[in-house]
TrEMBL record:
InterPro entries: DUF2624 (IPR020277). This is DUF2624 family protein. It holds the Pfam family DUF2624.
Length: 84
């Protein structure tokens, strides 16, 4: 299970804006290119563990601050699909 978590965290922490947009579209989440770029720049270099509830909440609070609470909720929905 730990290997699985490391792989997912690595993907999340190194995702590009284009990949995030594709993933959002696949999951019917409304994220525009500007928001995707902001989210990716926020996550770069932070090595966030999305399986840790506290870390995920801090990241989502930062995402809400630079985009909107609704966008942060959408990103949280995406993260929750990974941690199931």
């Amino acid at each position: 299970m730990i290997l699985f978590q490391k792989i997912i965290n690595q993907k999340v922490n190194s995702i590009s804006a284009d990949d995030l947009l594709k993933l959002a579209k696949q999951n019917q989440l409304a994220i525009n290119p500007a928001q995707a770029s902001q989210i990716v720049s926020l996550m770069k270099g932070k090595n966030v563990n999305i399986f840790d509830e506290a870390e995920r909440r801090r990241l989502l609070a930062s995402i809400a601050a630079i985009t909107s609470p609704a966008t942060a909720q959408q990103v949280d929905q995406l993260f929750k699909q990974f941690v199931k």
